[in-house]
């Protein structure tokens, strides 16, 4: 079985490192001239899949935008996952799950077990019930060749109150990164256990070289730039996946214009791996 880290490394080599977030915001549906209903959700999401899944390495649907339409929205999310993977993109399900261990097992079954209708290549996870509460997800990733991206230094302004808090010498974010370093030990070319670190965090004293990938939201609409990423990540930038949702999605609904926006995004972040 090929690990997620190995598949990601190949995808970056073949397609570049840009990740497109498939986030059907109500405001974007309106910008596209669509109604705020499930038929429009489907039209929006599958147009984005058609445009970008054949050209980018990773797509990241944010589950909340589908959940708000109930079971029919989840049915659209299932198609986003299946059709994106069929077009050759890795799917990073952005659901930011995290709960006590026994419930984490159910989240692992829902998103990381290949027999699930929502089975994805990787999942975003919240470690704020303690990193060990994510063990069932870590085990599922090892069993099924999937990946996990754990919130460490998020792009929102409220994050630091928790993530910069100290327990003695270590910050909370530093402790999360240590767990990831341990989970990725010995993996090559890169581990399957990533961190979420925003392009907007300014600077950090944390060591981001933990042999794992970095999901980097905050690029584009939230103001983060390639220069910010080079400064913040240093040598760890080679495993960075800059992620953009609204900036790319605003290029729709025309498929060619959307695809061009994704290609431009890919070109703009190419130098991170140089
Ligand atoms: O995990 C994420 O993707 C994420 C983490 C974070 O720290 N900040 C953040 O904005 N995100 C997600 O990134 C997307 C926002 O992308 P933009 O529309 O490009 O700002 C949403 O899906 C957020 O949930």
From TrEMBL:
<comment type="similarity">
    <text>Belongs to the OMP decarboxylase family. Type 2 subfamily.</text>
</comment>
<feature type="domain" description="Orotidine 5'-phosphate decarboxylase">
    <location>
        <begin position="17"/>
        <end position="261"/>
    </location>
</feature>
<keyword id="KW-0665">Pyrimidine biosynthesis</keyword>
<dbReference type="Pfam" id="PF00215">
    <property type="entry name" value="OMPdecase"/>
</dbReference>
<dbReference type="InterPro" id="IPR013785">
    <property type="entry name" value="Aldolase_TIM"/>
</dbReference>
<keyword id="KW-0456">Lyase</keyword>
<dbReference type="GO" id="GO:0004590">
    <property type="term" value="F:orotidine-5'-phosphate decarboxylase activity"/>
</dbReference>
<dbReference type="InterPro" id="IPR011060">
    <property type="entry name" value="RibuloseP-bd_barrel"/>
</dbReference>
<dbReference type="InterPro" id="IPR011995">
    <property type="entry name" value="OMPdecase_type-2"/>
</dbReference>
<protein>
    <recommendedName>
        <fullName>Orotidine 5'-phosphate decarboxylase</fullName>
        <ecNumber>4.1.1.23</ecNumber>
    </recommendedName>
</protein>
<dbReference type="GO" id="GO:0006207">
    <property type="term" value="P:'de novo' pyrimidine nucleobase biosynthetic process"/>
</dbReference>
<dbReference type="GO" id="GO:0044205">
    <property type="term" value="P:'de novo' UMP biosynthetic process"/>
</dbReference>
<comment type="pathway">
    <text>Pyrimidine metabolism; UMP biosynthesis via de novo pathway; UMP from orotate: step 2/2.</text>
</comment>
<dbReference type="InterPro" id="IPR001754">
    <property type="entry name" value="OMPdeCOase_dom"/>
</dbReference>
<feature type="active site" description="Proton donor">
    <location>
        <position position="96"/>
    </location>
</feature>
<keyword id="KW-0210">Decarboxylase</keyword>
């Amino acid at each position: 079985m090929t690990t997620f880290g190995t598949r990601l490394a190949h995808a970056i080599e073949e397609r570049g490192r840009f990740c497109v977030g498939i986030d059907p915001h109500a405001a974007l549906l309106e910008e596209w001239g669509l109604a705020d209903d499930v038929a429009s959700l489907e039209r929006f999401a599958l147009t984005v899949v058609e445009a970008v899944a054949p050209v980018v390495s990773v797509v990241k649907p944010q589950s909340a935008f589908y959940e708000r339409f109930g079971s029919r929205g989840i049915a659209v999310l299932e198609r986003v996952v299946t059709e994106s993977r069929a077009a050759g993109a890795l799917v990073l399900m952005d659901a930011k799950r995290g709960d006590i261990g026994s419930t984490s097992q159910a989240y692992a079954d829902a998103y990381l077990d290949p027999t699930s209708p929502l089975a994805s290549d990787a999942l975003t996870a919240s470690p704020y019930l303690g990193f060990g509460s994510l063990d069932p997800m870590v085990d599922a990733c090892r069993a099924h060749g999937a990946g996990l991206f754990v919130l460490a230094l998020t792009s929102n302004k409220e994050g630091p109150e928790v993530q910069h808090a100290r327990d003695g010498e270590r910050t909370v974010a530093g402790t999360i990164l240590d767990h990831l370093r341990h989970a990725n030990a010995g993996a090559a070319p890169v581990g399957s256990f990533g961190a979420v670190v925003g392009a907007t965090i300014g600077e950090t004293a944390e060591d981001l070289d933990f042999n794992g990938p970095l999901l980097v939201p905050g690029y584009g609409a939230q103001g983060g730039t390639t220069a910010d990423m080079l400064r913040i990540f240093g040598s760890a930038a080679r495993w960075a996946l800059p992620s953009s949702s609204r900036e790319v999605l605003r290029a729709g609904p025309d498929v060619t214009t959307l695809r061009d926006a994704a290609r431009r995004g890919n070109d703009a972040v190419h130098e991170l791996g140089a």
